[in-house]
Structures are given as structure tokens and as C-alpha cells.
Design a protein that fits this description.
Blueprint (H helix, E strand, L loop, with lengths): L8 H19 L3 H7 L7 E3 L4 E3 L1 H10 L8 E10 L3 E9 L7 E10 L2 E11 L3
Parallel strand pairs: 1-6
Antiparallel strand pairs: 1-2, 3-4, 4-5, 5-6
Protein name: Oxalurate catabolism protein HpxZ
InterPro entries: AtzH-like, NTF2-like_dom_sf
Length: 128
């Protein structure tokens, strides 16, 4: 791959739309959209701040059991980098009202026949 395929504007726009759609679903606890945007496969991984989830079924169970309160957050330092037309990494920091802790989130997105999907994700909180 040549560097001219990194951050193609059309690809960045498509991934950005999917990323921010996911973010809106996350803070509004729209479980259907959250589920839609993850790859429906046993190889999907989500390493959370307090849980390690392997496969779409574990991710679905986590979402179903998660409280729907206190999900609002503010993103900062969001970086979306695309490689070719089918692969992207989205990294961001987030803060929540009432805490000084800084959260970090990184997602790997792949364009599949169904559209852009998260195939791996990591969420962590920095120490205060």
C-alpha cells in the first residue's frame, strides 16, 4: 500500500460517520445499534475497563446487563486513521462529569459486506 491510500477523504468520512454513530448509540444506550456496529463473529474482541469479552455473544451479554445511567461523556483527542478502503483505527480519550479520570478507547474497524464494523475494541481508564 502506498501512503496516498492512508486517510483517503471519502474513507475517513465513512468511518467517521460510523464512529460517531457508535458514540451516539453508546451514550443513549441504543443496544441495537451497538450490536449492529460490532462484527457478528466469535473472533470479535472487546477488552473493557473491567471486563474482557471474546466473541459477539459475550459482547451482547455485557451490553444487555450494563446499566443505562451515567453514560454521557465528552470525547477529546480523537484520531481516525484509515488504510486503504477497508481498514481503520479510531482512538479517542473521554471524560465524564463528576470524575477526573481520563478514559481511553481504541477501535479497529473493517469494511465488511454489511458495512463498517468494529472487529476489536479496547477501553481503559487512566489512574487519577
Amino acid at each position: 500500500m502506498t501512503t496516498d491510500r492512508i486517510n483517503d477523504p471519502d474513507t475517513v468520512a465513512a468511518v467517521s460517520a460510523a464512529f460517531y454513530r457508535y458514540e451516539q448509540a453508546l451514550v443513549s444506550n441504543d443496544v441495537a445499534v451497538l450490536d449492529e456496529l460490532f462484527w457478528h463473529d466469535a473472533r470479535t474482541v472487546r477488552l473493557g475497563a473491567g471486563e474482557n469479552l471474546y466473541g459477539i455473544e459475550e459482547i451482547r451479554a455485557f451490553r444487555a446487563a450494563r446499566p443505562s445511567k451515567g453514560l454521557d461523556r465528552t470525547l477529546r483527542n480523537t484520531v481516525i486513521t484509515t488504510f486503504g478502503d477497508d481498514y481503520a483505527v479510531c482512538s479517542t480519550e473521554f471524560t465524564r462529569e463528576g470524575t477526573a479520570r481520563i478514559g481511553r478507547q481504541q477501535q479497529t474497524w473493517v469494511r465488511l459486506p454489511q458495512g463498517w464494523r468494529i472487529v476489536a475494541a479496547q477501553v481503559s481508564l487512566m489512574s487519577e
